[in-house]
Each structure stands twice: as C-alpha cells, then as structure tokens.
Amino acid sequence: MNITILAIDTSCDETSAAVVCGRRVLSHVEYSQIAMHTKWGGVVPSIARRAHEERIDWVIEKAMKNAQLLITNCDAMAVTYGPGLAIALEVGIKKAKKISQSIKKPIIAVNHIEGHLYSPFVQNSKGNPKTDFKFPYIGLLVSGGHTELVLFKDHLMYEILGETRDDAAGEALDKAARMLGFGYPGGPVLERLASQVENVDQYKFPRPMIGSHNFDFSFSGLKTSFLYFTQSLSEEDRIAHIAPLASSFQEAVFATIVRKTLKAIAHTGIHRVLVGGGVAVNQRLRYLLRKMIHEQDGQVWFPPYKYLNFDNAAMIGLVGAIKAERGLYVSDVSEIDRVARLSLNDVTV
Ligand code: KG4
Ligand code: ZN
C-alpha cells in the first residue's frame, strides 16, 4: 500500500510543501519569493532564508488542510537536503526534523535534482498522467541552478553524462535579460520578447562547446559576446532591437541544449527523454526539443503541470515515495545536514 508523505522543499526561492501518496499529489502549496528578489537581479540568500522561516509553517498547514489530513496521518517526511542555498535548505531540514520528532515518523532525504528528473511522472490526485516508468531514459535538466544531461538507468540510478562548466542555462538567460535592463527572472521576459520576432536568430551569437566531443555545456563565452555586442549599440538602437536581441540570445542557448541532447541520444542509443527544470517551461525550447526527438523516432516527456517545472515539493514527495518503497529512510535523523553542492553522483543519505 502506498504510504502518505509530507514533502518540503526550501532549496532556493520557493517555500513549498506537498502531501503525496505514491505518485499522486494530494495537495501542493508554495509561497514564491520571486517578487522579493526581482529588484536585486537574483536570489539574495539572507532574504530567502528569512522568507522561508516566515512561511514554512503556513505552507505546511495549508498543504495538510488541502489534503484533508492531519499531520499525524503522514507516514513519513521527505525533505530536500541539497543542492541549493545552504541557509535556505537549512530551514526545511530543521522543520522536517522537528515534525519527525514530534510525530515519530521517519525522514527521507531527497536530492533536489532527482526531484526535477522525476517531475514528468508526478500525478494529480486522480492518478493522471498514467505514463509508466520504462527505463532507461536520458534526463535533461535545465534550470536556474543546473544544466545537466543524465543517463537515468533505473529508479535512483543515475550517471551524469555532461553538465555546464560555468553558468546554468536559466542563469545565462537571467543575466542576458539583466543586460537588457530587466529584473529577475529573465527567462520568461526573453521568451515573451522572442515570440514577437520573425527572424529568431538575427544576430547569430556564438554557441560555445556546441561541437565539442562531450556532453558538457558552456554559456559564459556567449554571455560575454552578448555583453560586448549590446554595449556597442547606442541605447536607442538597443531598445529598438530588444526583441531580436532577446530572441537571438535564447536561440544560442537552446541550440546548444538541443544539440547536446541529440548527441546523448546518438551516443547511448536511448530515445526516451525526460526534461525538467524552470527553463523547460519555455515553449520555443519545447518545440525545438520535440522536433529533434521526433526526428530521432524518440519520445519526450515534460512535467505535466507548469508548476512542476519550477522548484516544488510535489516532485520531492514522489522521490520520497520511490525511496520509501525501498526502505531508504534516514537512519539517524540528527545526521541529516544540508549539502549545498550535492551532485547526483553522491551517495544519498
Ligand atoms: O527550476 P527553477 O525554478 O529553479 C532552479 O532550480 O534553478 O528555474 C528557474 C529558472 C530561472 O533561471 C528562470 O529565468 C527560468 O527558470 N525560466 C525560464 C522561463 N521561466 C522560468 N526560462 C526560459 N523561459 C521561461 N518561460
Ligand atoms: Zn530546481
């Protein structure tokens, strides 16, 4: 029988709690701090921590209420212990420990990246979508903090094929938007601007490492080239060409993502691709990935609901359920600690 799990994620700028039963999400509540960070151009750790502390009880109480359950009805807790902002992760971990001790239920420690990889399989309370696991997959994670290609061999078994050597894809989009005078997050702004132009790749910015013989990414050279180019324009010219500039930058980032994913498909012979992370909400990226993967006779899955692209506790709950089925609880709750730079390769707690 599926057990009921209360999941918590406070890894970055969303305070999130969810109640899940197996793959099904009974409730999901999040408090987004985006508005607090916008004017700073990125997430400010001390502001994030305070906001998590102020909201954590509220999101948990609301998640329990929406699931129409009492906290004592939960069989276990699942909490993100990394990667993320150390002082933000700490808030969720501390809360999970406190609840676990008071209701005497075990904790499952979850790697946030595992959550994104599993996110296409999260189901609503009616059990949709029904798509079953059929390993192996290629996992593509494109978010504000991570850009990785992963060989997802079986439940909880990963091999990192490649990752970014500098900025994450979302981070690069955020920085380019900032150079054009916009606040955080920049990805949605660039997408909106790009959707207005016909010639989507007018400026043909460089695509660093696109042809390299590995699965790694690099976006910092592109960013520098974009910076120099925008600085070479008069303010009037920059404003007049803002949409093609945004679009051309987006195309350069996406071309690299699509090409490296194609390379991973060709190298592994695996044609089933899972995509997760905030950047994967972008319709242009979805179109380009779908096109390439269908040309390879492959299949691609994105998170079924928009909120699942972003940081959320529902995906953490699903990984919690998979681990619980295998008895992978933390043996000594006092031992769980935040791991800001946690990798998928690290042995989980
Ligand atoms: O997954 P996420 O919420 O946080 C991390 O785990 O990092 O991703 C946030 C990132 C930001 O960089 C944001 O600019 C980007 O996702 N993003 C988008 C879009 N919406 C959010 N990027 C491109 N197009 C979008 N529509
Ligand atoms: Zn994330």
Describe the fold and architecture:
The protein has 349 residues and is an alpha/beta fold. It folds into two domains: 4-125 and 307-346, Nucleotidyltransferase, domain 5 (2-Layer Sandwich); 137-303, Nucleotidyltransferase, domain 5, CATH 3.30.420.40. Helices cover 41% and strands 18% of the residues. The chain has helices spanning 34-37, 45-67, 86-103, 112-118, 169-179, 187-194, 220-232, 235-240, 242-268, 283-295, 313-325; strands at 4-9, 14-21, 24-32, 76-82, 107-111, 137-142, 147-154, 157-163, 272-276, 299-301. The strands form two sheets. A five-stranded mixed beta sheet has the order 3-2-1-4-5, with helices on both faces. The protein has a five-stranded mixed beta sheet with strand order 8-7-6-9-10, with helices on both faces. The mean pLDDT is 94. It binds 5'-O-[(R)-(carboxyoxy)(hydroxy)phosphoryl]adenosine and zinc ion.
Give the name of the CATH architecture of the largest domain.
2-Layer Sandwich
Attached small molecules: 5'-O-[(R)-(carboxyoxy)(hydroxy)phosphoryl]adenosine, zinc ion
Give the full name of the CATH homologous superfamily of the largest domain.
ATPase, nucleotide binding domain
CATH uppermost class of the largest domain: Alpha Beta
Which secondary-structure class do the elements indicate? alpha/beta
Which geometry do the CA atoms define? globular
Q: How do the helices and strands follow one another from N- to C-terminus?
A: EEEHHEHEHEEEHHHHHEHEH
User: In terms of per-residue confidence, which ranges show pLDDT below 50 for 5 or more consecutive residues?
Assistant: none
- Beta-strand share of residues: 15-25%
Biggest sheet features: 5 strands, mixed
Span between termini: 24 Å
- Overall helicity: 40-55%
State the strand order across the main sheet.
3-2-1-4-5
At CATH level 3, the topology of the largest domain is: Nucleotidyltransferase, domain 5
Mean pLDDT: 94
> Over the alpha carbons, how many angstroms does the gyration radius reach?
20 Å
Quaternary structure annotation: single chain
Count of distinct strands: 10
